[in-house]
Amino acid sequence: MSTAFDTTASKSEVYQPSREILESVQASDYLELREEALQDPLSFWDRQAKELLDWYEPYQQIFDDSNRPFFKWFTGGKINVVHNALDRHVKSWRKNKLALIWEAEDGEQRTYSYFKLWKEVNRFANILKSMGVKKGDTVTIYMGRVPEMPIAMLATAKIGAIHSVVYGGFSEQALADRIDDAKSKVVVTCDGSWLRGKTVNLKDIVDEAIARSPVVQRVIVLKRTGQEVNMVPDRDFWWHELAALPIAGPYCETEPMDAEDPMFILYTSGTTGKPKGLMHSCGGYLVHIAATLKYAFDTREDDRWWCAADPGWITGHSYIVYAPLILGLTSFMYEGAPGYPYPDRWWQQVEKYGITLLYTAPTAIRGLMRFGDAWPARHDLSSLRILGTVGEPINPEAWRWYNVNIGKERCPIIDTWWQTETGGFMITPTPIIPLKPGSATLPFAGVEADVVREDGSSCNPDEDGYLVIKHPVPGMARTIWGDPDRFVQTYWSDFEKQGWYFSGDSARKDEDNYFWIIGRMDDVIKVSGYRLGTAEVESALVSHHAVAEAACIGVPDELRGNVIRAYCILTAGVSGSESLEDELKAHVRHEVGPIAVPASIEFVDSLPKTRSGKIMRRLLKAKVLGQPVGDTSTLEA
Ligand code: WTA
């Protein structure tokens, strides 16, 4: 429940919006709008749905709560994201507008107009069809950060299939589990991806995952690095070879979807080793992401938007791929690592491409801040208008650095709190809201959030409690793929009586009703903003023959927010050593991925457990942090 940083110090530090912002912002009436939406959230969302999206057929009902907590939105409506993100733009003047600018790690540059992107998506949609993909089928996408990744996502959605994107930093077991759970017959991947001048062999990982998860029948492989890969005849096909065939025709009909049809699954970590596939719908999700991006970042036609996340996480799904395209913006996407090859790579790109809106994570800011002020100072960053942050609480020091060195004290910092589960921003300022470093400020219009005690009563100002959502929001996930009971249990059972959604986060509100997120209350760890379950790392550790039992905790880290610390009981006859520690780290890297590698592993003889045998990670953590251990009455004697 603790963060690495003191966020309380900055509560009296308030940044008022500048006159320039107040005079230029489009939604200058946002506070009134928010007040109205608080009284009548359905009308607010209804208006957004009509203003921001085109529907093939209008919806009959805005909100249906007849089967709680499986809420529905915009029922009866027919829609497709690709119709809104591409088809309608190519019929307008936006046809020749840039949809996407991409820079490779080695400096290569590519641009896609809306027309060009639309054509590529049509082609790939036809390729997917020729592979037997039909409406309602799942397609797993496992790629580096290349334009073909959004193209594959859009093409899947165009034909009414459901994508499951697996972050390219995950390894064999993590990928195999996700393919298996989604039962994807088709996987789209690359031969390899680039990171810090080196290649990662993605195709090899796919091959190993398929060996563990035999549902896959077809693999489409994009040639990105040109490295040697093994192509299995009749199973594996090169993207470029398929694209040259007559099957890859330049036009593919967009499938009208019911608003409540599944649009995608995205796996995220929870308290058990089995990842949860959060399922998002076709209608409500789009309304939510388009409205939040428009208001929070005051987006304009001539903006150049850079969401520096990976499309493989929810931030990338919602705010690299879908929302910016729906709003007709020009997005920038960068393949590689932030400080590669020099610490000013990002600032150079801001200058080169005239980025106006930059949205990133505290861990990236801290990582770049480390190199000092001189690197951003070398570049003209005056194109920037608004900055954003997401993923974990931002420590005031990083906030101030971002504000002074990047925003030059002119750019509001939009701190957006949300989750894979919520689909889009939930608590966020807009540019007219006074800011306090470290606070995500106020719930977005139409979102009713609160901090409450276990009995559901609202906490007093500055009292820690559970962060809950009291009324469903259109973008919230509809279920956990294949496991509706777990959906109810995980999110809707803590405050069942009240019918509220529990986020898993603890927070407090201050006397101005500003929200301060403290952190996860469950066994989820945020490492460099990436979300990991302790159980995933633990099951990777115990899958090694030397380990009998393992427990992982997150401990605060100045740069990465948290790092993982693992405790292992070794199997009889094995003794701990530095080389075993290295071997176990390599094993976790191979099974789950580099982000899951523990910073340290301690070999122990026992682990604190409850009488029912559950490991008490809370105790391990309290010990590391030198905090009181609290209630231990359920501890095993
Ligand atoms: C944390 C990422 C503080 C939080 C979009 C949440 C944040 C989890 C913020 C979801 C923020 C996200 N301030 N904490 N602005 N944004 N979090 O699913 O703990 O990867 O529950 O979604 O990240 O992580 P996820």
Fold and architecture overview:
The protein is α/β, with parallel strands linked by helices and 637 residues long. The model has no long low-confidence stretch (mean pLDDT 94). The radius of gyration is 24 Å and the shape is globular. α4 (81-90) crosses α5 (114-130) and α5 crosses α6 (148-158). The chain is built from 19 helices and 30 strands. The chain has an eight-stranded mixed β-sheet, with helices on both faces. A seven-stranded mixed β-sheet has the order 5-4-17-16-18-19-20, sandwiched between helices. A four-stranded antiparallel β-sheet has the order 21-22-24-25. Bound molecules: 5'-O-[(S)-ethoxy(hydroxy)phosphoryl]adenosine. 5'-O-[(S)-ethoxy(hydroxy)phosphoryl]adenosine binds at residues 268, 313-315, 390-393, 415-420, 440, 503-505, 517, 519-520, 526, 531.
- Strand tally, please? 30
Sheet with most strands: 8 strands, mixed
Q: Looking across the biggest beta sheet, what order are the strands in? A: 12-11-8-6-7-14-15-23
Average pLDDT rating: 94
The whole-angstrom Rg is: 24 Å
Outline type = globular
Q: What percentage of amino acids are in beta strands?
A: 15-25%
Could you say which small molecules are bound to this protein? 5'-O-[(S)-ethoxy(hydroxy)phosphoryl]adenosine
SSE topology:
Layout: H1 19-24, H2 30-39, H3 41-52, E1 61-64, E2 72-75, E3 78-79, H4 81-90, E4 98-103, E5 109-113, H5 114-130, E6 138-142, H6 148-158, E7 162-165, H7 172-182, E8 186-190, E9 193-195, E10 198-200, H8 202-212, E11 218-222, E12 236-238, H9 239-243, E13 257-258, E14 262-268, E15 276-281, H10 284-296, E16 304-307, H11 314-326, E17 330-334, H12 345-353, E18 357-360, H13 362-369, H14 374-377, E19 386-390, H15 396-406, E20 413-416, E21 449-452, E22 465-469, E23 479-480, H16 484-492, E24 501-509, E25 515-520, E26 524-527, E27 530-533, H17 534-542, E28 547-557, E29 561-570, H18 578-591, E30 600-603, H19 617-625
Parallel strand pairs: 4-17, 6-7, 6-8, 7-14, 8-11, 11-12, 16-17, 16-18, 18-19, 19-20, 29-30
Antiparallel strand pairs: 1-2, 3-13, 4-5, 9-10, 14-15, 15-23, 21-22, 22-24, 24-25, 26-27, 28-29
Helix pairs in contact: 2-3, 3-10, 4-5, 4-11, 5-6, 7-8, 10-11, 13-15
